[in-house]
Amino acid sequence: TILIIGACGQIGTELTIELRKKYGSENVIASDIREGGESLMQSGPFELLDATDYSAVEDVVMHYEIDEIYLMAAMLSATAEKFPMRAWNLNMNSLFHVLNLAKEKKISKVFWPSSIAVFGPNTPKEDTPQNTIMEPSTVYGISKQSGERWCEYYHKKYGVDVRSVRYPGLISWKTMPGGGTTDYAVDIYHEALKNGSYECFLKADTQLPMMYMDDAIRATISLMEVPSEKVKVRSSYNLNGMSFNPEDIAESIKKHIPDFSISYEPDFRQEIADSWPSSIDDTPARNEWGWQPEYDLDQTTAEMLGNLKK
Ligand code: VAH
């Protein structure tokens, strides 16, 4: 049985749908600090769960005889800058609880998401390699770098089978994302359809690593299905989808909405974005478990506008 913690989030929502399709609804327990939308709540078992409460998590694990946990609950980069200590508490203690349950053999496998946010201002920005300088300058990035160190430690020291990918900015239409810096790349499609224009909180030339959600979900499930001995990286795998800046995405949208217009009003999130790489090298993921993205920017735009119009 699988438990998804943070099942109402941008990634959690879509992981729940895919895993329920694959393994059957009754075998995938969704949980979050708050209830989700109607479709999620009606599609299988749900538990209200505070990921920072060890005994609450343990109760759910024992009650449903959980084998695997996908820990998707976290406070993202922009919000974490506003509430550093709440972000550290949520992002780290939820991870310790899940790693300790695995150490005590109460569960057998863990997925935990890292992020390109682990890289910092002095990390090489182009084709950022799997192993390189990492001095993250955001609360969120610090929590992800520390989380990676703990995942690798629990694997080496206690044999915990924890797997992780460094997600780029993710673009999806099923949920409204919350609190991220890359959320501009989701908001822009909503605004394009609603107002025909978008005021972007990042500068036109801010190139960032991005990925369409379907690719991210496929990568996650593929990594979890690889035999443990083939998973060499136990911190977190670099994962590349595409790289673009706000001007590129505006041009892509104009192919569908010719008079779409974009303006730029950078805010505090510009500094966060400037500390991150502009493109990622994911050679280890490609070599070790056959990773290959499928969506480019124009395909993403077609999917986003097509689905949001409905
Ligand atoms: C954020 N979407 O913006 C997340 C992600 C790389 C970006 O970590 O914080």
TrEMBL record:
Matches recorded under InterPro entries: Epimerase_deHydtase, NAD(P)-bd_dom_sf, NAD(P)_epim/dehydratase
Gene3D superfamilies: NAD(P)-binding Rossmann-like Domain (3.40.50.720)
Family label: Belongs to the NAD(P)-dependent epimerase/dehydratase family.
Occurrences of domain NAD-dependent epimerase/dehydratase (ranges): 2-232
Name of protein: Nucleoside-diphosphate-sugar epimerase
Biological processes annotated in GO: L-threonine catabolic process
Coiled coil regions in record: none
SUPFAM superfamilies reported for this sequence: NAD(P)-binding Rossmann-fold domains
Top-level taxon of the source organism: Bacteria
GO molecular function: L-threonine 3-dehydrogenase activity
